[in-house]
């Protein structure tokens, strides 16, 4: 069982399909015209839940991580950023996966000069490295892959960068590597307000999830909740499907 101080559980409904690299790279976004109603509503629910758990503390800097690779955390980081923008928030998305960055390819943003987080941490200008995306949020790519990602993410400079960005943005969403395999995400915990833990259905084992949570708990990371990604609605849940279909019809004809 996952033990968390606060509950923030959102199911992301998708069609039952085989998980492979091609499916993961073809990122579904809430701005896509063919995105299912349930899928879009799940992100609105996530956004609302973050507000609810922010009663005593504002979660301005949010880290997105998972137990193992291919659980969909990068897609969730992108769609959560879009969701915040839709309610008028100023958002920056940071690719803090300095080993195998994916956000640039998902967003179609590949700066020729390879500026990004790693180069900013080693002295390059922060604002000259930030890109503005077609989704109306700003984006700080990972930059050049460094030989020492853990040291960079845990450095004083990393804390100073996030502190500066807090003055410029309503929300800072950070995509990080999986917890079980690397210590990068754990190292970054000291600088963020809260962590959202992504679990893809039928991907990570219970033992892998428990191990990842223990690593986060060992540094007193503030895990504000979990997301069950690629949740497949059971075939016998006709009542639930009718509920969502009725509301989908309502909003489409409103």
Topology:
Layout: E1 10-13, H1 21-25, H2 37-52, E2 61-66, H3 73-86, E3 91-95, H4 103-107, H5 117-121, E4 131-132, E5 138-140, H6 149-153, H7 156-166, E6 171-175, H8 184-188, E7 194-200, H9 206-218, E8 223-231, H10 238-253
Parallel strand pairs: 1-8, 2-6, 2-7, 3-5, 3-6, 7-8
Antiparallel strand pairs: 4-5
Helix pairs in contact: 2-3
Pfam family, one: AAA_31
Domain AAA: 72-221
Family: Belongs to the CpsD/CapB family.
Task: Describe the model.
This protein has about 250 residues and is of the alpha/beta class. It has one domain: P-loop containing nucleotide triphosphate hydrolases (Rossmann fold, 3-Layer(aba) Sandwich). The chain is about 35% helix and about 15% strand. The protein is built from 10 helices and 8 strands. It has helices at about 20-25, 35-50, 75-85, 105, 115-120, 150-155, 155-165, 185-190, 205-220, 240-254; strands at about 10-15, 60-65, 90-95, 130, 140, 170-175, 195-200, 225-230. It has an 8-stranded mixed β-sheet with strand order 1-8-7-2-6-3-5-4, sandwiched between helices. α2 packs across α3 (about 75-85). The longest helix is centred in the first third of the chain and has 16 residues, at about 35-50. The chain is globular, with a radius of gyration of 18 Å. The N and C termini lie far apart (about 40 Å). It catalyses: L-tyrosyl-[protein] + ATP = O-phospho-L-tyrosyl-[protein] + ADP + H(+). Keywords: ATP-binding, Kinase, Nucleotide-binding, Transferase, Tyrosine-protein kinase. Belongs to the CpsD/CapB family.
């Amino acid at each position: 069982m996952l033990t968390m101080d606060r509950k923030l559980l959102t199911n992301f409904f998708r069609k039952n399909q085989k998980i492979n690299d091609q499916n993961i790279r073809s990122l579904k976004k809430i701005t896509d015209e063919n995105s299912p109603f349930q899928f879009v509503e799940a992100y609105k629910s996530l956004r609302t839940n973050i507000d609810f758990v922010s009663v005593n503390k504002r979660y301005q800097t949010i880290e997105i991580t998972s137990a193992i690779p291919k659980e969909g955390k990068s897609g969730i980081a992108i769609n959560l950023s879009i969701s915040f923008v839709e309610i008028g928030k100023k958002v920056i998305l940071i690719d803090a996966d300095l080993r195998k960055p994916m956000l640039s390819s998902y967003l179609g943003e590949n700066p020729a000069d390879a500026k990004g987080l790693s180069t900013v941490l080693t002295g390059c200008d922060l604002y000259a490295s930030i890109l503005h995306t077609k989704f109306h949020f700003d984006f700080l790519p990972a930059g050049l892959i460094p030989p020492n990602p853990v040291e960079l993410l845990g450095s004083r400079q990393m804390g100073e960068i996030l502190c500066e960005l807090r003055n410029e943005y309503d929300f800072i969403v950070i995509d990080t590597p999986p917890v079980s395999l690397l210590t990068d995400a754990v190292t970054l915990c000291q600088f963020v307000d809260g962590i959202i833990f992504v679990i893809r259905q039928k991907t990570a084992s219970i033992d892998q999830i428990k191990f990842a949570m223990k690593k986060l708990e060992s540094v007193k990371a503030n895990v504000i909740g979990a997301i069950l990604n690629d949740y497949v609605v059971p075939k016998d849940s006709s009542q639930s499907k009718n509920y969502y279909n009725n509301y989908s019809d309502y909003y489409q004809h409103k």
